[in-house]
Amino acid sequence: MSDAAIATKDDGRPDQEAERRRGSTLTTVLLRQETTLIFVIVVIGVLTTVRNSSFSSRANITAIASASVIYFVMACGASLITIGGGLDFSVGVVFTLGGLVCGWMLVHGVAWPLAVLIGVGVGALAGIVNNCVIVYLHVPPIIATLGTFFVGTGISTTITGGNDIVPLPSSFQKLGQGELVGVPYVVWYAIAVGAAFWFALEKTRFGINVRALGGNRQAAIGNGLRVGRLDFALYILGGGTAALAGVIYAAQVGSGQVEAGGPTTTLNVVTAVLIGGVSLFGGLGTITGVAVGAILLSEIDNALIVASIPPQYNTIIIGSILICAVAIDHVRRKRLYRQ
Amino acid sequence: MELISAADAGAGAPEEGAPALELRGLAKAFGRVHALNHVDLAAYPGELHAIVGDNGAGKSTALKIMCGIYRSDAGELVVNGESVTLHSAADALGHGIAVVYQDLALVECLDVATNMALGNLPRRGWLLLDRRRMEREASRVFDDLKIRVASVKTEVGLLSGGERQIVAVARALRLDTGIMLLDEPTAALGVRETARVGGILQELRARGKAIICISHDLEFVFNYADRITVMRLGYSVGTRETAKTTRDEIVGMITGTIGRDGAA
């Protein structure tokens, strides 16, 4: 990445520039979001273990992993939207709706595979609504999805009358509570979803087009990319993964909860995406980074409880980390790109 | 990919044979504003044809008609002897016209090879991106231009203005079309970089491509163009062979002290 790209044959100057840039390779590695995050995760882990050794017990680490699954699955779709230059603030309520709709189907005798599919489908539908509002009403993504967030919150309370959907069939609960080779099912789900999104982003033409869209929308249009179709696909994926996370959560806790998601969920997901190194300005970001971001968020949640630190510190810490992450992103861009 | 399509087409004798791209009496109005009144232009294979003119002369409008962004109200756009109406940039590409936009339309966070293939990414199977082929094709274009490329995996955001301009030209070249349109290719470049881009354009011309280049930079135009068409207030004032004209004549045509060819 640090090589000068182009030089004519008898031309020495760009090579000197290459030398100059090569010197900053180490800085670039250190500035990689994953490196920083893993360091932070380890530091928090060590500090918390010193205070309460049960933090690094197998049971507790499994609990952190399970909790991070919810953030991560939602963040997969959300990060793709953000890399594509959009933003989705509606995830918190699409999450709730997914769990509720799936739960409602289950208690009305629908078989679980169909119920899950319909739950995820409702999320995709929410994504379509977001996309239509953005494209046809020309509302900026942040406002459009904030609007659908509020509308969705009202809808979820109205259709349930404010009551949780309980109890969900045990066959469904097993899906959220079982283990395979000592690892909870839900972690396997997250690995599967993450692998699929990583593949789509890094190995397919769709992934490149999404980066191009977020990196320079005008250039994407100028090069003949069908940006409308890309946007459409992105918001469907964002809604779908948010609802899927809601379904997984319902299976984990055994009920469809009206208060499952909300503003905090939305903000946590956006935070996981940004901490994970996805640029708010689009184009840059990786699924692995987002995974590490999601793990860091649930580690902090958990560590504060285990270390019996008052919960108000949680938001202070997460807020500070978020600001640092975005500031680092800015520095990174300045180092990488000429203005 | 066949890059050398008509290498033996003589660069020195543009008037022989049929024009690759011709504008005949092109007119275009936006509401009450007449951007183009009457534009004639003929660009031949193996020619670097510059379009010069003051701001508001209609250069960009003419270019946008040639690359399918606008449609003309009157007149004809003739490509390789066939009168065509272009409806999109993809349509223009289908007729063998590649465009290098003034803003270059590059994505900073993607590497050189990806930028060059954008909109036309090679695939393996029905899903996978064929990154190796993409990089190979990109390298081949640079090799062919005799430009050394340390790595086509470099992100475009790391490149200088001149390097970016070259990537944009290389992208158009990868499409291997007979006609290439460039909008102000040297506007953002220094002296050395301008020379480099000029050299590449001469190389392409020698291979028989018709290169149409809008430019403000008269020094660049006189150094590299074979013929110059001057536009003024929506009219083509006239076309001159660079070797047989002077800077004073071109400036006179631009400013209006020398009138339109054939006009009273």
How would you summarize the topology of this molecule?
The complex is a heterodimer of chains A (339) and B (264).
Chain A: E1 6-8, H1 13-22, H2 25-31, H3 33-51, H4 58-83, H5 91-107, H6 112-136, H7 141-160, H8 170-177, E2 179-180, E3 183-184, H9 185-203, H10 205-215, H11 217-222, H12 227-253, H13 263-275, H14 287-306, H15 312-336
Antiparallel strand pairs in A: 2-3
Helix pairs in contact in A: 3-14, 4-9, 4-10, 4-12, 4-13, 4-14, 5-6, 5-7, 5-12, 6-7, 6-12, 8-12, 9-10, 13-14, 13-15, 14-15
Chain B: E1 21-30, E2 33-43, E3 47-53, H1 59-66, E4 74-79, E5 82-84, H2 89-94, E6 97-100, H3 112-117, E7 123-124, E8 128-129, H4 131-144, E9 147-149, H5 161-174, E10 179-183, H6 191-206, E11 210-214, H7 218-224, E12 227-232, E13 235-241, H8 247-255
Parallel strand pairs in B: 3-11, 3-12, 6-10, 10-11
Antiparallel strand pairs in B: 1-2, 1-4, 4-5, 7-8, 12-13
Describe the structure.
- The complex is a heterodimer of chains A (339) and B (264).
- By secondary structure, chain A is mostly helical.
- The longest helix of chain A is centred in the C-terminal third of the chain and has 27 residues, at 227-253.
- Chain A contains 15 helices and three strands.
- By secondary structure, chain B is of the alpha/beta class.
- In chain B, the strands form three sheets. A six-stranded mixed β-sheet of chain B has the order 6-10-11-3-12-13, with helices on both faces. Chain B has a four-stranded antiparallel β-sheet with strand order 2-1-4-5, covered by helices on one side. A two-stranded antiparallel ribbon of chain B has the order 7-8.
- In chain B, a hairpin with a 3-residue loop joins β7 and β8 (128-129).
- In chain B, α4 (131-144) packs across α5 (161-174) and α5 runs parallel beside α6.
- The longest helix of chain B is centred in the C-terminal third of the chain and has 16 residues, at 191-206.
- Chain B is globular.
- Mean pLDDT of chain B is 86; it is low at 1-14.
- Chain A binds chain B through residues 1-9, 14, 18, 21, 203-205, 207-209, 211-212, 215-216, 218-220, 222-225, 283-284, 336-338, and chain B through 88-90, 93, 101, 103-110, 112, 114, 118-121, 123, 127-129, 142, 146-155, 157-160, 163, 166-167, 196.
